[in-house]
Design brief:
The complex is a heterodimer of chains A (250) and B (81). With 250 residues, chain A is mostly helical. Chain A is built from eleven helices and no strands. Chain A is globular. Classes of the chains: A mainly alpha (250), B mainly alpha (81). Chains A and B meet through helix 2, helix 4, helix 5 and helix 8 of A and strand 1, strand 2, helix 1 and helix 2 of B.
Chain lengths: 250, 81
């Protein structure tokens, strides 16, 4: 376990470096470093094959550099801004589903279960204050304006699915499961949350990275306690709806 | 130069930079597909596992490649007509 923890910290540092290079120096160099990290994680996963959960840990962790490679290379500029989330979520969802299939996991294993619905509802509602606080940190441009009510609602649903469900499936469903299994609860939860916060370096806002880290800890803890990602997915999605649609339109 | 909109959405400011990143991702896809081709000829347990884990990257990168190709073709068609 000590070796796995050291390897995890090394890869976390490498991913953070690749994110910093992508955001502050040159996205091409960042993409190259992310690609190298991805290939080495996949190789490590194969080398540790049979010694689960280490193999699953490296395979799941490869989703982090892969997300950035996909998001950088997608031709998003051809799409209207409000469609970016849905378009970007398609390859990420495909990667998550392939990782689930390769690891031989079931839906329940990755938290796709509706147990303890009252608790899930309460967790989902935390998205509202999270979104308000993050809006005051980032003050983003409105995602869309002057849309009819129906289209506005469809956009909100798309945002909940593509940012909430898909990202939570990757981070809390697939990655947290294998990290906790390999490193234990405390290190696993902290590790996944650190990876999640690292992926927000691109906002170039340290306060937001810290805020995302706290939210990530909350999501990770709730997933661990309830065994489901439904509540945290809704909360994550609602956070983004409030952040990108409701608050900027005030 | 870039802007992150959420964890999974990052956009680059210029089309030229977008093309470079698309080309790099395509090169990575070619590398992964070649590795998959090589390892699937071997029956070793670890290589089979490596081949399977490569799918995690190959499948989404194929989707990205498909989108890049479709938009390039549409761009060429619209420049001709």
């Amino acid at each position: 376990m000590k070796l796995e923890l050291s390897a995890f910290i090394l890869y976390l540092t490498l991913i953070a470096s690749a994110e910093i290079i992508t955001s502050f120096i040159d996205p091409s160099y960042g993409l190259l470093l992310h690609s190298a990290i991805l290939v080495s994680l996949l190789t490590l996963s194969a080398l540790w094959h049979g010694a689960n959960p280490a193999s699953s840990l490296y395979l799941s962790l490869s989703l982090a550099p892969l997300i950035r490679i996909l998001s950088l290379s997608l031709p998003l500029t051809y799409f209207p801004r409000y469609a970016w989330y849905t378009v970007a979520s398609v390859p990420v969802l495909a990667a998550a589903l392939t990782a689930i299939r390769v690891q031989g996991l079931g839906l329940r294993d990755v938290g796709l279960t509706f147990n303890n619905l009252p608790a899930q509802t309460c967790i989902a509602l935390t998205g509202v204050p999270f979104g308000v606080v993050e809006y005051f940190i980032l003050k983003p441009e409105p995602l869309a304006s002057n849309l009819p009510m129906l289209e506005y609602s469809l956009l909100a649903i798309a945002l909940i699915f593509s940012t909430g469900f898909v990202e939570e499936l990757v981070f809390r469903g697939v990655l947290q499961r294998s990290t906790v299994e390999a490193l234990g609860e405390k290190a696993g939860v902290l590790g996944v949350t650190a990876v999640f916060a690292t992926m927000h370096i691109g906002w170039l806002n340290l306060l937001d990275v810290l805020f995302v880290f706290s939210i990530g800890l909350f999501f990770a803890f709730m997933t661990l306690k309830t065994g489901s990602i439904v509540g945290v997915s809704l909360s994550h999605g609602i956070t983004n709806v409030v952040l990108f649609l409701l608050m900027p339109a005030r | 130069m870039i802007s992150t909109v959420t964890t999974t959405v990052t956009t680059v400011a210029t089309l030229a930079m977008g093309a470079t990143l698309g080309a790099l991702a395509t090169l990575l896809l070619i590398l992964l597909l070649s590795a998959k081709e090589v390892v699937t000829t071997d029956m070793g347990q670890r290589l089979v596992a490596f081949g399977r884990s490569l799918d995690v990257s190959i499948v989404p990168l194929l989707i990205v490649f498909m989108l890049i190709t479709i938009f390039k073709i549409l761009e060429i068609i619209s420049s001709i007509s």
